[in-house]
Write a structure and sequence with these properties.
mainly beta; 3 helices
């Protein structure tokens, strides 16, 4: 017996609404995707700088590349261009750091010197990067970095979903134990 599949029904057009309303709805829709939370740090013109991101991903193992998506409106956006940077993946106990580097309540920052860029101590993982390429991403720039040094520790990760921080529990065994 052969089943005949018909094309799915086309979605109806969205009602005409303000750009602000549609952007708000899209942000809410995208916010349903859980992400990790990281702080990108680099040596700025006046010393170490950093900002919180949740749009970070691995790109390649050969060469080792990662991507950080940075809003063009971010104060550090232009200053980051062409500079080595570190992606500091936060542990669940480091929510205060995420808030601080997002422009919220300030906390005392202790910086560590990395091989390429400053980093934060006791983070869940860090990846030090040399600039690789930058790409236009609309209201963001996609900064690709070549990983030149990294390390990680055990622990729960700080996550973000639907406008809230959450704890992402560490699994008992990870894929790294299988290879």
């Amino acid at each position: 017996m052969t089943a005949i599949m018909s094309a799915p029904e086309r979605p109806r057009a969205l009602p005409v609404q303000s750009d602000h309303h549609l952007q708000s709805m899209l942000r809410s829709c995208l916010g349903r995707f859980a992400t990790g939370v990281a702080v990108v740090t680099f040596e700025g013109e006046t010393g170490p700088r950093g900002f919180t991101i949740n749009s970070f991903t691995s790109v390649s193992l050969r060469p080792p590349l990662v991507l950080a998506s940075v809003a063009r409106s971010a104060r550090s956006h232009d200053e980051l261009a062409g500079r080595p940077f570190t992606v500091n993946v936060l542990g669940s106990e480091q929510e205060a750091l995420a808030i601080c580097f997002a422009g919220g309540q300030q906390v005392q920052i202790t910086w560590e010197r990395g091989k390429e860029a400053p980093r934060l101590p006791r983070v869940l993982a860090h990846l030090e990067c040399r600039p690789w390429r930058n790409y236009d991403g609309g209201d963001h720039t996609l900064y690709l970095g070549e990983v030149v040094d990294f390390d990680y520790r055990s622990g729960d990760a700080l996550g973000y979903i639907a406008g809230r921080f959450v704890s992402i529990g560490e699994p008992q065994l990870g894929l790294e134990y299988l290879i």
